[in-house]
Amino acid sequence: MRIQRVKPRVEQKEDRAPVDLTLIDGLLKKYQNLKGNLIPILQGTQDVYGYLPKEAFQHIHQATGIELNELYGVATFYAQFRLTPAGKHIVKMCHGTACHVQSVTAITDEILDTLQIKDGETTKDGLFTVETVACLGCCSLAPVMMIGEETYGKLTPKQAVKIIREIRRSENN
Ligand code: FES
Q: What is this structure's pTM?
């Protein structure tokens, strides 16, 4: 769960591959007339595409009759939903209490500066998305950062940036 929400950007890059909307037809059929279907539909859609593509909103609206503004309202309210594709590496910066006390904010700022993005955004090259999250469950290692399945603890800003740079370097080789 993200702690700090960034203003969601509904507009999306147009240079991406077309979205195959048939991939969610089974999901829509399953939840079509069920009460409280909105969140499961959005969750299922995000599971399929990794985010909520703009085209999917129209498709869901047509299939279920749920109003577009209701769909966007829920999708932008809950931090679990993503309106743009995530980067290849999702960098989770723990801003729980223990990490906060151990100055994780300075580390996050350093990473965001290095990548030239804001919290919740993805780098232009699509390699990194940075998100601030609640406790990652390993407070004794504070301050903590997670990239994919890898956990990095007792970090300093310098170490954190080095890790990011190494990943970028290995991706560019
Ligand atoms: S507060 Fe960061 S891991 Fe618990």
A: 0.71
What's the 2 CA to ligand 1 centre distance in angstroms? 13
> Is the Cβ atom of 134 under 6 angstroms away from ligand 1?
no
Domain encompassing residue 47: 21-77
CATH of the domain at 105: 3.40.30.10
Question: How many structural domains compose the chain?
Answer: 2
Is residue 139 within 6 Å of ligand 1 at its C-beta? yes
Nearest CA to ligand 1 atom 1: 96
Write the pLDDT tens digit of every residue in 88-98.
Answer: 999 999 999 99
> Which residues is 145 bridged to in the sheet?
93, 152
pLDDT per residue as tens digits for the range 102-144: 999 999 999 999 999 999 889 999 999 999 999 999 999 999 9
Question: What is the spatial distance between Cα 112 and Cα 118, in angstroms, rounded to a whole number?
Answer: 6
